[in-house]
Design goal:
The chain has 225 residues and is mostly helical. 41% of the residues lie in helices and 9% in strands. Strand 2 and strand 3 form a beta hairpin.
Length: 225
């Protein structure tokens, strides 16, 4: 989406946060500040673009999806990028990707402000403040994999030397898997489902080797110690 907006307003420079190599992509990707345009531009036609395993053309034909519905998910034209000169760079190439230190850097050098409340499911006030669905995403991650936002954040803080493992474990026990009600109804309305249907879907996704139901409450069989 960012390159699309950049083309519309003739913006030549986009900054993302960290490179995906921080989370498992090829480490060699960290050798460049630029994000490969392969990720967001293509000359392919609708027939050759697949979303969720279905071609964009078939989505429009068989599921009554319009071109405007798909627009946000389609790549930009590389020639338009070249005309505007738009490039995508990673802040993590220029500033070591330490979320807490990047937060301090942003406050000191820009008008960035943290949230006025803690991110539900974790313990900081500066992550996921521009996305109403991200909190719910990490809750469903907790349901599916047994680890939530607090686990991800605490693990990063350990690696960066900000907290000890014992401190991280206490944070995980306190915040991991916290249900995020703040934007829940907006998300349900967007997805077109009821709260009962939501619970039905996520409870069916709980792996048996991770979860046990006791007295009507779902409990993790094994917690980090």
């Amino acid at each position: 989406m960012a390159p699309k907006i950049a083309l519309k307003y003739k913006i030549p420079l986009i900054f993302y946060g960290e490179n995906e190599a921080e989370y498992g992509n090829a480490i060699k990707n960290n050798n460049s500040s630029k994000r490969d345009s392969f990720y967001y531009s293509s000359e392919e036609k609708l027939d050759d673009i697949y979303l969720g395993g279905v071609s964009a053309k078939d989505l429009m034909k068989e599921y009554n999806v319009s071109r405007s519905d798909l627009e946000a998910y389609l790549p930009v034209n590389p020639y338009d990028l070249e005309r505007v000169g738009t490039e995508v760079h990673y802040l993590g190439y220029y500033v070591k990707w330490d979320p807490q230190e990047c937060y301090y850097f942003s406050v000191e050098n820009t008008d960035f402000l943290p949230n006025d409340q803690r991110t539900q499911g974790s313990f900081n006030k500066y992550s996921s403040i521009d996305d109403k669905m991200d909190w719910l995403h990490f809750y469903t991650t907790y349901v599916k994999f047994g680890i939530g936002r607090a686990t991800y954040d605490a693990s990063q803080e350990i690696r960066n030397g900000h907290i000890t493992r014992d401190e991280a474990v206490r944070l995980v026990h306190r915040f991991d898997g916290e249900f995020p009600p703040q934007y829940l109804q907006e998300n349900l309305d967007y997805m077109g489902i009821t709260l009962d249907r939501f619970y039905e879907i996520i409870d069916n996704a709980r792996p048996d080797h991770l979860w046990d139901k006791q007295n009507g409450e779902w409990l993790l069989k094994n917690k980090v110690k």
